[in-house]
Design a protein that fits this description.
The strands form four sheets. The chain has an eight-stranded parallel β-barrel with strand order 3-4-7-8-9-10-15-16, surrounded by seven helices. A four-stranded antiparallel β-sheet has the order 5-6-14-11, with no helix packed on it. A two-stranded antiparallel ribbon has the order 1-2. It is 34% helix and 19% strand. It has one domain (7-299): TIM Barrel, CATH 3.20.20.70. With 308 residues, the chain is of the alpha/beta class.
Length: 308
């Protein structure tokens, strides 16, 4: 049968279940269009803060056997300039975009939400989980279900767009935090962000490979953990989930959907394999659908649960 990659999520239809996560590419109209042309069904802006952030001094990205260590430092042009690029992209392409927001307290998240409300974005993402700015801001907000609930509750009172809470794998009980985000009003969840922070050492120079010393861990090595956490959390919450973490093939994207995800983020694979990897993953998903006589990603059966 002819299979379609069209996928529904929060009442909207996307041409592919693949999502460009925040922070993978730049924040310009051109970089967003590059992601659209590569085959992403939904693209996400960089996480935007109230004021511009330069991020960390380089080197800030390093490859290792299992993936990537990065410490970009949430570099972004600020909410005003970032939303201008989102508007240009939306007006010229009509392609769905999610605006990601970053702050360290409820009032700043609320102010960012007020500004994002007037954008052409389809969703607002709350980045509560970045591990590579712990030197500045401490443990990610998403490590605390009380903080997650407080911020989501405040944002939902103001938001005119669906709110997606991006949670951290660096939490003792992620399913409980996912449930707290849902109960506070989150329309959907996004998980997992990068693990860590971690460390790589240049043995010749006898110093850390990254200038900021530590960085978030992403890539193929984290796929099994991402699948487990998405599976566990989707067993606890009713809201849909964008699943991500180490996906680099069509089969792995199908695994993420079987684990419970409605959409699938692909980030490090783009850095490691280039833009063509997105088309390859889409082709792999389509091939699976056709082999299994499944009409669309929405119809892929979910993994059976022991106590179901």
């Amino acid at each position: 049968m002819a299979a379609s990659l069209c996928t529904r999520f929060l009442g909207k239809e996307f041409p592919s279940p693949l999502v460009l996560p925040a922070g993978i590419l730049g924040m310009s109209y051109g970089s967003l269009r590059f992601a659209r042309d590569a085959g992403f069904g939904l693209v996400t802006s960089k996480s935007l803060s109230l004021e511009p952030r330069r991020g960390h001094e380089g080197p800030i990205v390093a490859r290792f056997g299992g993936g990537i260590l990065n410490s970009l430092g949430l570099c972004n042009p600020g909410i005003e300039a970032g939303l201008a690029e989102v508007e240009e992209f939306s007006q010229k392409t009509g392609h769905p975009v999610m605006v990601s927001l970053f702050a360290v307290n409820r009032p700043d998240f609320e102010e960012l939400t007020r500004r994002a409300n007037d954008s052409s974005a389809v969703f607002i993402e709350l980045n509560l989980s970045c591990p590579n700015v712990m030197d500045e801001f401490g443990v990610p907000l998403a490590a605390s279900k009380e903080l997650v609930a407080d911020i989501v509750e405040g944002v939902k009172k103001l938001a005119r767009l669906p709110v997606v809470a991006k949670l951290s794998p660096n939490a003792l009980d992620l399913p409980a935090i996912a449930l707290a985000a849902q109960e506070a009003g989150a329309d959907a969840l996004s998980m997992i962000n990068t693990l860590g922070p971690g460390l790589l050492i240049d043995t010749a120079a006898r110093k850390p490979v990254l200038a900021p010393r530590f960085g978030g861990i992403s890539g193929p090595a984290i796929l099994p953990l991402a699948l487990k956490l998405v599976y566990e959390c989707t067993g606890r919450v009713r809201v849909p989930v964008i699943g991500m973490g180490g996906v680099s093939s069509g089969d792995e994207a199908v695994q993420m959907i079987m684990a419970g995800a409605g959409l699938v983020g692909v980030g490090s694979a783009l850095w490691l394999g280039g833009a063509g990897v997105v088309a390859d993953i889409n082709a792999g998903i389509r091939g699976y659908l056709e082999r299994e006589n499944i009409a669309s990603p929405d119809a892929i059966p979910k993994l059976e649960r022991k106590n179901a």
